[in-house]
Every structure is written in structure tokens, then in C-alpha cells.
Amino acid sequence: MADQIGLLFRNESGRVLATLIRLLGDFELAEDAVQDAFAAALVQWPSEGIPANPRAWLVNVGRHKAIDRLRRHMRFLAKREQIEADLMSDQRMGEWFPEDSAADSVVQDDVLRLIFTCCHPALPEEAQIALTLRTICGLTTNEIAKAFLVSEKTMAQRLVRAKAKIRDAGIPYQVPSRDVIADRLDGVLAVIYLIFTEGYAATSGPNLIRGELCREAIRLCRLLIDVMPDRAEANALLALMLLTDARREARTNPDGDAILLESQDRSRWDREQIAEGLGRIEQALHALVRPSTYAVQAAIAALHMRAPRYEDTDWAQIAALYEVLTRIHPSAVIELNHAVAVSMVDGPERALRLVNSIGKRGELNGYHMLPAVRGDLLRRLGRKDEAAAAYRLALAGVDLEPERRFLTARLEELS
Questions:
Q1: Cα-based angle 161, 166, 172 (whole degrees, multiple of 5)
Q2: From residue 300, how far is each of 81, 179, 251, 281 by CA, in Å?
Q3: Which residues make beta-bridge pairs with 258?
Q4: Contact yes or no for 296/325 (Cβ under 8 A)
């Protein structure tokens, strides 16, 4: 039962939190209510059974727990009566959890509202990303701090300031009008892609993939396209996520260990998703005036999808597209991916020079994929001792168990 509740927490806590934030208008109160609701589930569900609609149960219990907290805390006394009246009214109940699941329209989707709140221009970009990782992806403050290469205390302070800014500035918890959406679209797309990447390659934990986050990001992008169907960039992002996610079932073995691209069983790729993704990227490329970040990444994913075998992959074109990507969106991580593609075209020696150049700049210090890629290139060059040292350095920065097992296996192969 505890495992089932844990799975529900991973799958549903983001949506439960989003709904409670809308109801309560306070991030911290809603976060406490979510914790209280799941604590109650751990006590009640083993004897009573899991309810037919767990999310509705959790929201309802969290709502009552929040009311109890409001009663206990004097600082909420002035607005307690109005909040309690709003939360207890039948009309409000119908708004927060409609009986008809089809009523999850764009305007009613609480997660999308939360994303627009997190992406308000009054918040710094790093705060937008951190809040999304915390509230929607469910990462701990320590995990987010590691992603930003700062201390846990520093990240905790940033999160507190961001939540206070939303509260004090009265930032509305809503999907804004179309003209405002256009101004915030880049930030919202970035956040949706962030949710997807955390699902596709988890930051930490026992599993390489968090499928529920991949599905949620794709769902949210579809909702956004419903609002703004003429925005090619949103279509390009959806194409990128569909094409990338199509490989999900082939990326791990039954033990949860990673299967590299060259060893994947391509018959397990989702052909329906691939077909939709290829169609959407064609539409986006025709509609865009100039190449965009998501469109180029989707074009790279499409090249992988079109290759019937790994040996048929058009690495020369992939390397060229990464060069385009580095020009329109300069990033050391993209340069690292470009170096991997170069190694498949010109060999590992030239790629190693590129990776060493990236490392000297120091932008990716603490990022485990830099020494991991370097170790792989050195291994292919037969420089075993240097490769082992690089793999050990990568291991020191890994929090994800499947990646740890993969790097450990590489070290064992070298010895």
C-alpha cells in the first residue's frame, strides 16, 4: 500500500498542489496541505482502501487540513471567514473538481494556471524555473540547488522570495488573455520543456524515466496549442517531445538500467507518436520565418527516428544542425552534444579536443555529463587510464541510480 501511495504522490502531487494553490492563493499553505493530505492517506487508505478518485480525495482532505491550519494561525484571522466561505461553498467545489473529466478545459486546467503564475515577468528567470521544479516536478530544494550549483540554503531563500513576490504583488493565478500569453509564451514553453526533460532524464532517484512528467508536459503543450494554434514554436516543442518520448519504452531494460541508442530495439518505438511528431515538425518548419531552438532540436530527433538502424543515422546532418543550434541558442550543453555528433562523423580525437575546450571554460564544472562524455571518447581512443579517471569524476556528481550503475559498469569494463 505504501508503494501505491508513493506512486500516486509522484503522479498526482503536482496536480493536487496546483488545485490547492488556486483555492488557497498561497503556495506555502497549499504545500503544507498536500503533505497533510498524503499523510492522512498513509493512515486511512491501508484500512479503508484507495478511493475511486484519489486526486479528488486528496484535494478535499487537503482543503480541510488547510482550513484547520487557518484556524490555528492567528495571522490569517482577518481573512479566515471569507476563505472558509469560499472553500466550503458548493459553487466553489464545482469549480475546483468538475465531475465531468472533459471539463478540464484550458481555462480550468490548474497546472497550466500554475505555470503561467510561475512564469510571470515579475519573477527572475531562475525563480520561474526553480518554482516549476519544486511545485510541478516535485523536486526537493536540495535537488534544485544541485541543478543550479548553489547551496540548499541559498535555493530555499530564493524559493521563499519568489513565493512572497507572488503573494505580495497579487500575481493572478490564471491563464491570461491571448495578448498576455504571447508575451509570456517563451517562458511557458521553456517551463513545459523543463517538466518534460525532468521526466525523460530524471535529476535523481531510483528511476531513469518519470513517465508521468513526460505525459503531463505533452498534455500541457497540447492545451497551450488549443489556446494559440497559430504559434509554430509551440507546435515545434510538441513535435520534439513526441519524437523524444517515442523511444521511452526502449530506453531501459527490465531492471531499469539505461539502454544506449545504438542498442535499442527500434520495434518498441511508438510509431504513432513518431508519425504525429514528424507531421508537426514539418508544419512548424514551414510556418517559422527563421529556425528556432525547439524546431532544430525536433529536426535532430526526426533524423534519429527516420533511421531504420543505428548505422543508418545521418550523423553529418545532425552535427550540422547542432552547429545551427549553437548559433541561435549558445549553450555549453549544446556544444557538448555537438561534440558527440562530431565524434560519429570525424572520430573521437577531434571530438575530444572540442570537449576539452568546453571543460577549460569552466561553465560545466559539476555537470557529470562532461567527464562522462570525455571518458567515453578516451575509452574509444584506447586511453584506458584517463578514461577511468574521467568516469570516476562523473560518478562523483551522479545522483541518479541507473546512471551510477552505467558508469560503474564502464569502469569495470576498463579494468
A1: 170
A2: 56, 31, 18, 11
A3: 252
A4: yes
Question: What DSSP designation does 205 have?
Answer: B
Neighbours of 179 (CB within 10 A): 7
**CA pair distance 322, 326, nearest whole angstrom:** 6
The pTM of the full predicted model, rounded to 2 decimals, is 0.77
* Neighbouring C-beta atoms of residue 281, cutoff 10 Å: 26
> Across-strand partners of 252?
258
Contact criterion met (CB below 8 Å) for 154 and 94: no
Q: What does the pLDDT profile of the chain (415 residues) look like in tens digits?
A: 667 777 777 777 888 888 888 888 778 888 888 888 888 888 888 888 888 888 889 989 988 888 887 776 655 555 556 656 665 554 444 444 443 333 334 335 778 788 888 888 888 888 888 888 888 777 788 878 876 767 889 989 998 888 888 888 887 776 667 667 777 788 888 888 988 988 898 877 788 898 888 998 998 899 888 877 778 999 999 999 999 999 999 999 998 899 999 999 999 999 999 999 999 999 998 888 888 999 999 999 999 999 999 999 999 999 999 999 999 999 999 999 999 999 999 999 999 999 999 999 999 988 999 999 999 999 999 999 999 999 999 999 888 899 999 999 999 999 8
Relative orientation angle of helices 54-72 and 2-24, to the nearest 10 degrees: 60
CB-CB neighbours of 170 under 10 Å: 7
Contact 296, 324 (CB under 8 A): yes
Q: How far apart are CA 31 and CA 156, in angstroms?
A: 14
Q: Which of 107, 98, 117, 104 is nearest to 27 (CA)?
A: 117
> What span, in angstroms and rounded, lies between the C-alpha atoms of 295 and 286?
10
What residues contact residue 266 under an 8 Å CB cut-off, 6+ apart? 250, 308, 309
**How far, CA to CA in Å, does 223 sit from each of 105, 110, 279?**
8, 12, 18
E strands present in 262-373: none
Amino acid present at 392: R
CA-to-CA dists, residue 160 to 141, 166, 296, angstroms:
11, 10, 36
Q: What are phi and psi of 133, to 5 degrees?
A: -60, -35
Interhelix angle 315-328/293-306, nearest 10 degrees: 170
The one-letter code for the residue type at 375 is G
Amino acid at 93: M
